[in-house]
UniProtKB/TrEMBL annotation, chains A, B:
Gene3D superfamilies: 3.40.50.880
Protein name per Swiss-Prot or TrEMBL: dipeptidase E
Catalysed transformations (reactions): Dipeptidase E catalyzes the hydrolysis of dipeptides Asp-|-Xaa. It does not act on peptides with N-terminal Glu, Asn or Gln, nor does it cleave isoaspartyl peptides
Species: Xanthomarina gelatinilytica
Subcellular location: Cytoplasm
SUPFAM superfamilies assigned: Class I glutamine amidotransferase-like
Superkingdom in the source lineage: Bacteria
Listed EC numbers: 3.4.13.21
Molecular-function GO terms, alphabetical: dipeptidase activity; serine-type peptidase activity
Alphabetical list of CDD domains matching this protein: GAT1_Peptidase_E
Segments crossing the lipid bilayer: none
NCBIfam families for this protein: PRK05282.1
Keywords, alphabetical: Cytoplasm, Dipeptidase, Hydrolase, Protease, Serine protease
Length: 237, 237
């Protein structure tokens, strides 16, 4: 039986507060049975090193008395994932993250570990890889991963940092809504536009929207619609 | 000898004016020896069909008395490119565009045609593919092309629709400058951030910034800097 237990967050940081701060109360509960969290720093935001990124995560989790070990600190990263009490994959560049996971053969170990119940926190890029594919990331394709297929912990995709169209915007680049519409010219799975401050709480029987905001759901051939916090999404596919 | 002749524009449309309108005077001159322009509609903005997109391009070029033929209207697209008097690749999704060019084996014919002097206009996605790779596109990776390598008409990459960081922005998604910095953690070629209304005029001996605005240049391991319209970029690599 599957034992999934995930928090899939749009962002690590909401405006005006520290790294992971808005989620810490939730995370103290979520990670209550873990002393040490294995951190996957592969997404390297702004190109920072695995070491520096791990220090950042370590400082945040110190506030709720958790240790953090970067996966690059283990001799065998596959075993690190297999033996982890808890896993956190940070944000940054989704292409870089997925590339590195494929390179280190970590997709299958990650899947197995999460499906047997190891609590998993993802933020931004670390959340993107929980959907079916990374086809709906906002990130720049700075490296070429061997595939866009991701961990498929949910039967749909997400779009983190979801941004509403800005009224009277003079910039002619595509809006997020237009980009997702383009996605649906090629794929039929739903996409959840997760605004900053929102997350999905995923267990073996439920996928629930959490946080103070609504989210926007894009289903194939349907008008996009808003869902309230607390909405159950397990039947969305 | 190479006979390149390209206009590589950030956007097709500037705020408050019609499709290609801001460029039409320039294009009348640029395409003066062509009666018919072969249009590549593969990038499908908002997922519109090749037919509808071609109608849009046709209407714009009617104003300067040019015919437009969509490449999908030809029995043999490779021959269409080989025999074209002029080529225009429109914007939309860069991944979709490059995927379709690879699928139809059009990269090499396009290269050859442009290197023998066929005038080429690109806007947005149609400009992205003129750089070394599409690693610096803003678009969503909705399809998986067989490679990110592009036409390499210039020894660097561009970032079209370049957006400056917005002061006091509450959105925590990465700025364009941050994304390009992440790119330079993996690659050394320069990136030109082309603002809307700017274009590069490329010939066999020159690559010049045109239009009313400055552009932002990102070189590996250097502080980004602005260049004035008229700046010669042929030695940038």
């Amino acid at each position: 039986m599957e034992m999934k237990n995930l928090i899939i967050a749009s962002t690590s940081t909401v405006h005006g507060s520290g790294y992971l701060e808005y989620l810490l109360d939730e995370l103290a509960l979520f990670f209550k049975d873990a002393n040490t969290i294995v951190f996957i720093p592969y997404a390297r935001p702004s190109g920072i090193s695995h070491e520096d990124y791990t220090i950042k995560a370590r400082e945040a989790f110190k506030k709720i008395d958790k240790n953090v070990m970067g996966i690059h600190e283990f001799e065998n990263p596959i075993e690190a994932i297999q033996n982890a009490e808890a896993i956190f994959t940070g944000g940054g560049n989704t292409f870089v993250l997925l590339y590195q996971l494929y390179k280190n053969n970590l997709l299958e170990p990650l899947k197995k570990s999460v499906l047997k119940g190891t609590p998993y926190l993802g933020t931004s890029a670390g959340s993107n890889i929980c959907g079916l594919t990374i086809n709906t990331t906002n990130d720049m394709p700075i490296v070429y991963p061997p595939s866009f297929k991701a961990l498929s912990f949910m039967p749909f995709n997400i779009n983190p940092h979801y941004l509403d169209p800005i009224p009277n915007n003079k910039h002619m680049g595509e809006t997020r809504e237009t980009r997702i519409k383009e996605f649906h010219a090629y794929h039929t799975q739903p996409v959840i536009g997760l605004r900053e401050g929102s997350w999905l709480q995923v267990t073996e029987t439920s996928i629930k929207l959490k946080g103070p905001l609504t989210a926007r759901v894009f289903e194939y051939n349907k008008t996009p619609y808003e869902i309230e916090s607390g909405t159950e999404l397990k039947d969305l596919r």
